[in-house]
Specification:
The protein is mainly β. It contains no helices and 19 strands. A twelve-stranded antiparallel barrel has the order 3-4-5-7-8-9-10-12-13-16-17-19. It has a three-stranded antiparallel β-sheet with strand order 11-14-15, with no helix packed on it. It starts with a strand and ends with a strand.
């Protein structure tokens, strides 16, 4: 039964999420499963701490905490085994705590559409081994809110809004090898980002992840334990009005990750956690504290 791959479109790319939020959102997820159409719901939470710039050296810097939440509807349709169409529609919110005050910004985020092609599909039944390699391309449409409301401009950077206002294009590679109950995955993605109507140029995003997994039989269900390491990076944003580099943008991080997938009948329950061990976001002005994700997928055939 578990003979193929379910590839999830978890590319919930927001504007930038204080430089680091979107840095980790372009990597693909590969779950050994069946080649099924599916529909799913996903929730993700990302926590950051930002140290704000001061005018004078002897000033005590102001520190703020940002919590980004994203809730998305995802779906995949595969007319033939080698071709997959994947769509993702997210809603995002950010809560900012600074000087004992809380501020919020939320709205519809940018929808994305991805096409995967199964380039290699190798299987050896005698050794219960298979190898799959997908190549994919994606487009992110400016469906999300990318303009400030009310007094949001006093508290949030443009790259913290739900949408970017740009057309962005991605390229993806997903590799999976499995032998019996063991296997490994390798994912790599890049997102080439555009310039908004207000002359804000977003930095490009890059992400990769390698992981090792094992299946465990639990009565009539299965549990998949996945342990991996993810690297992600983003270029700095630019304000073309002033030809200047934006603060609180750009950087990279290296993060161990733990993922659990529980297969029960036509459902897959997913949860994952990630915490950087090395990072340099916005010249160390921003710290990524953790990222959590949970979701459920319904396999339709």
């Amino acid at each position: 039964m578990l003979a193929g791959i379910v590839l999830l479109a978890t590319n919930n790319v927001h504007s930038c999420d204080v430089c680091g939020g979107a840095v980790s959102s372009t990597g693909g997820d590969a779950i050994p499963g069946i080649f099924s159409n599916y529909i799913g719901l996903n929730a993700s939470y990302r926590s950051f701490t930002s140290t704000h710039l001061t005018l004078f050296e002897d000033e005590i810097p102001i520190v703020s905490n940002e919590l980004f939440s994203t809730y998305s509807l995802q779906g995949r349709y595969s007319p033939i085994r080698r071709l997959q169409f994947i769509a993702n529609l997210p809603i995002s919110a950010v809560k900012k705590e600074m000087e004992e005050e809380e501020q919020y910004a939320w709205g519809l985020s940018d929808a994305s559409f991805r096409v995967n092609y199964l380039l290699f599909d190798r299987r050896n039944d005698s050794t219960n081994t298979f190898f799959n390699l997908f190549l994919g391309t994606s487009v992110k449409a400016p469906t999300g809110r990318s303009n400030f409301r009310g007094n949001e401009a006093y508290f949030f950077h443009r790259n913290m809004l739900p949408g970017s206002g740009t057309w962005d294009f991605g390229f993806h590679v997903d590799l999976l090898w499995r032998r019996k109950e063991y296997g490994c995955t390798l994912n790599a993605s890049s997102l080439i980002r555009g310039t908004s109507n207000n002359s804000y140029d977003f930095g490009n995003l890059y992400a990769s992840r390698i992981s090792f997994f094992r299946f465990f039989e639990i009565r009539k269900s299965r549990l998949m334990l996945d342990v991996g390491m993810a690297f992600s990076a983003t270029g700095q944003d630019r304000n073309l009005h002033f030809n200047s580099v934006e603060d609180y943008t750009g950087g990279w991080m290296l993060s161990p990750s733990l993922q659990l997938n529980y297969f029960w009948k036509d459902l897959i329950f997913r949860t994952s956690a990630q915490r950087p061990i090395i990072q340099d976001l916005a010249k160390e002005q921003v710290v990524n504290n953790y990222a959590l994700q949970a979701g459920v997928i319904y396999l339709m055939n």
